[in-house]
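User: Structure please.
Assistant: Input sequence and predicted structure:
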Amino acid sequence: MFIKNYSEFVCFLPRFMNPSPDVENPGSKIWSASFRLDQEIRHIFPYINASLDDALYYERPEHVRFTFNGYRCFLYPDLVAAHFFESKAAAKDFIADFIDFLNGVEGQKKNIRPNYDRIKPIPIIDILKILPKTNCRECGYLTCMAFAAAIMKGKAATDECPGLALPISENAVYPVFDDTGNLVNSVSLQINTSRLKNQIQEQHEQILKLEAALRTDQQNETAMDSSRPSEKTDFGLTNREIEVLKLIAEGYTNNEISGMLFISPHTVKSHMIHIFNKLGVNDRTQAAVLATQNEII
């Protein structure tokens, strides 16, 4: 077992809380606790950072923040602080599960790709200097100040701001490991991602053009189909919708149909909605059965 024991357990209340909260309000989550592990565990921080969606790995002081069993945890190299317990007993019970979790991460290291990204706290005022300060809300935050605070906490990324200028330079940080696989250092190299970004932008523009052309073809096809006399048994389906319906009946998925007909998955989904509405059905099986019964396919 990696971690076998702990010490220096302390359970306390924030200074502003009532000294007897369990009497006044039983079950209120206001207790905090801390305890010391029997060994240093900083080497598993990158694995915890990779395993938990809400993990935040800070560089100074080095620690990981995350939620475990509903409690907010701050994990330092050999110290644990956790918050919002219902009682001292709940805090005590939490320790065994938490140590089991840490031992589990240690045991599964070979199956986890570590995430060495660490948050380097930057003053909000410095982050605000690079933002447009228009409070446009396109980033999803009410103000540029709120967005800057989210960046500082690692909850938002700079590319979410449409008015932010491109960076002058970018660095890639590469890990340096010792013979046992532990991170001992890192090397930062300046990189140029402008070519890749330009390629991505060109591909995005090309996709938009193709989708526009597909929409035009679909509109033209719909106009042509509407001018043709419809048969009693085709429910007003267009030729393209019948093609899609045939593939649905043969069991192909939306992505497979997209590739076979050289149309986007979004267009396939649009066709399916039209098919279901015209046939008056709710799923693929009903559509296939009705189409077969009426000799549409």
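The first strand starts at residue 6 and ends at 12.
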